[in-house]
Amino acid sequence: MRITSIYDNTELANKVKIPWLGYGTYKAHGDELIEGVKYALNIGYRLIDTAEMYENEEEIGKAIRQSKIPRDEIFITSKVWNTNQGFESTLNSFENSLKRLGTDYLDLYLIHWPVSGRYIETWKALEKLYKEGRVRAIGVSNFLIHHLQDIINNCEITPMVNQVEFHPYLLQRDLLDFCQRNKIQLEAWSPLMRGRVQNIPQIVDIANKYKKTPAQIVLRWDLQHGVVTIPKSVHKERIKENADIFDFELTEEEMKIIDNLDQSKRFGANPDDF
Question: Distances in Å between the alpha carbon of 84 and those of 124, 125, 225?
Fold first, then answer.
């Protein structure tokens, strides 16, 4: 698997193509976000990730329109929030996200967290939206193996994506293997450990070898694991830096060095306790 361009993508189980590298927008708002999205699109990003809970879908829709890039060239992801889970309320949330984004379809719609007792019903709403052609692909976020197995056992469609916390301190090898076996594309949020990767000596050493930053090394590590990744920044130099990861490849030994940093350590919530 060779990934050599920001325009490279991978196929989901239903043959829909998703870019390997995306632009995350959690906690980003206002003009700063609008300019960040426009800049990201201008330099080649094509996957924009948002969520109902982020309260920034309107700004993202505005930025996409101002970018003048055709809608069908952009892969937009949003997510239904926990308090709106359930069949009818999920359908309503989806319609509201479309209105705020100013689009008539989504490329990917996710369940944000596995709310106990509600995510099966919520998933059935996503299946309905998918069958109606309102969304090109459906998936989940923060689901562990037992949550995914529950959907596989009780629903018609297997999730096409699972967006989870994934970084050098949280490899989640069993989850990655399960998703790969079941053709569920893993996608990494918080891939840079909220900036902490800058201070890990083993990663700094590899970065020095390639004349890259520790962040670039970790994003490349994601891609070489077959994991879609969505780093977040509103600063132009960082947005550009995060995209400058296609002119080198980590060796097998370097991949193992980073893999061995795994501590099963979360910086976000545990999906079983959220």
Answer: 14, 12, 33
Q: Which two tokens stand for residue 131?
A: 């069958």
Q: Is 26 a catalytic residue?
A: no
Q: Is the dihedral of CA 116, 117, 120, 123 positive or negative?
A: negative
pTM here is 0.97
List per-residue pLDDT tens for the chain, 274 residues long.
789 999 999 999 999 999 999 999 999 999 999 999 999 999 999 999 999 999 999 999 999 999 999 999 999 999 999 999 999 999 999 999 999 999 999 999 999 999 999 999 999 999 999 999 999 999 999 999 999 999 999 999 999 999 999 999 999 999 999 999 999 999 999 999 999 999 999 999 999 999 999 999 999 999 999 999 999 999 999 999 999 999 999 999 999 999 999 999 999 999 999 7
Q: Quick check: is 274 in a domain?
A: no
112 known member of a binding site: yes
Name the catalytic one among 23, 45, 54, 130.
54
Please check whether residue 84 lies inside any domain of the structure.
Answer: yes
Number of domains in the chain: 1
User: How is residue 217 written in tokens?
Assistant: 């090394």
CATH of the domain at 236: 3.20.20.100
